[in-house]
Structure formats: C-alpha cells, structure tokens
Design brief:
Elements: H1 24-28, H2 38-41, H3 54-57, H4 61-76
C-alpha cells in the first residue's frame, strides 16, 4: 500500500491564497472612461454581455459607476450588444 508521501493530490496548492485586488483606474491614473472604445469596455463584461461586479474586477466604487454608465451608453449606440452567447 502507498504511504502518505507517495500520494499526489489533485488540488492546486495556491487555492487558499488570495490575490491582491486593485483599481486599475487609480493605479494607472485613468480619469476618463470613453464609451466609444468597445475593446476596452469588453474587459468589464462577461461572455453573456452582463456587467462584471466590483468584487471580481477590483474597481473602486467611483470607477465602477463610470464603467457601468459607459457600457450602457455603448450598448445604446450599438457598439456593445445587450445580450450575446459568445462575446469574448
């Protein structure tokens, strides 16, 4: 029978460690979020077209609101889809 040291576990050893989240807008000094740049806004939308929450993106409250407004404006102008199957 195999000893305890011979058994290889299938779990990832980094599962318990948390990655430090940061607001990319504050870190890089971005003041204005342009709604006419859909390539940048796709980062904040999942593959179904829904906005990603702050706890996943790491944005601060101020910039998460600005991102939400920019995505909604881009959707209104048909630069981003409201609903999709495979956006990314």
């Amino acid at each position: 029978m195999a000893s305890r040291d011979d058994i290889k576990f299938l779990s990832n050893p980094k599962i318990g460690s948390k990655r430090q989240k940061y607001c990319r807008f504050r870190k890089f000094g971005i003041k204005h979020i342009d709604y006419k740049d859909p390539a940048f806004l796709v980062q904040f939308v999942n593959d179904q077209g829904k906005l990603l929450p702050r706890r996943i993106t790491g944005n601060s409250l101020k910039y998460q609101r600005k991102v939400a407004i920019a995505v909604k404006r881009a959707r209104h102008l048909a630069m981003l889809p409201y609903v999709t199957d495979l956006l990314k």
